[in-house]
Design a protein that fits this description.
Blueprint lengths: L1 H15 L1 H36 L3 E6 L4 H4 L10 H13 L3 E7 L1 H12 L3 H5 L8 E6 L5 H8 L5 E6 H44 L1 H9 L4 H36 L4 H4 L8 H30 L3
Antiparallel strand pairs: 1-3, 1-4, 2-3
Helix pairs in contact: 1-10, 2-8, 2-10, 2-12, 8-10, 8-12, 10-12
Amino acid sequence: MRAQFVLSEIGVGLRRNLTMTFAVIISVALSLALFGGSLLMSDQVNQMKGFWYDKVNVSIFLCNKGDSESDPNCAKGPVTAEQKKQIQDDLSKMDVVQKVAYESQDQAYKHYKEQFGDSPLASSLTPDQLQESYRIKLKDPEKYEVIATAFNGRPGVQSVQDQKGVLDNLFRLLSYLNYAAGAVMAVMLVVALLLIVNTVRVSAFSRRRETGIMRLVGASGFYIQAPFIMEAAVAGLIGGGIACVFLAAGQYFVIDNGVALSDKLQLINFIGWDAVLTKLPLILAVSVVMPALAAFVALRKYLKV
């Protein structure tokens, strides 16, 4: 009988404050969708780091004829066969080096045409304008400085470049975007909590006569508070369910189908459904616990039991 009463009171409360309940549901849905999106973005960045850092190379670019006048590192002229042999021998002796690949000017020109063949510069470029290079795969991408220290400034070496530096800038930008999404999520969460507290206050005020009678007949404090707490929890759960639908729809329509970024951006190793599905229970749990706690705190202040 008591459970039936509590359930009936939940339905009455939700219908009586329909507009505010709807606002609570929408605000909870948006804030938790952003919360889930932030978690997934963090997983995506970590997965991209693991994927790309495993493929990162250090490049040693060698001086060519055109560099001797424009680059002070190549003031002594283009790289000689003896210098190239010495560089390759030294690389083979370094413990941090896993693999070394030599790229000639013709190979560099071919790769450039494959990647930037549509650019206006490609038509005027010739192989002798590009640089020979050594592409070095390190056992540990963090050991770039060992290569840079050993070969920067050496005769015949124009520059030593680390692809990891470019990737770090990209991942830093993605992290900033994730922080921005987290800030928006925090604002939406505060709005949702304020709406929940206000909704509970209005609901408690509109039913003050019923709660007064219940106190007079000896009802316990929890029995009086339960319908209000459950109303907030149900509204939050609905909002959490909508947030889960948003995340699943984003994975399905944006990553897998529809826009299909996984097909259009094949260089990016996107997270899969396993990452999304592991976040959904957390979102649902937060959607129930957060409104229930907010309602409990509001009732302690506004409903004297």
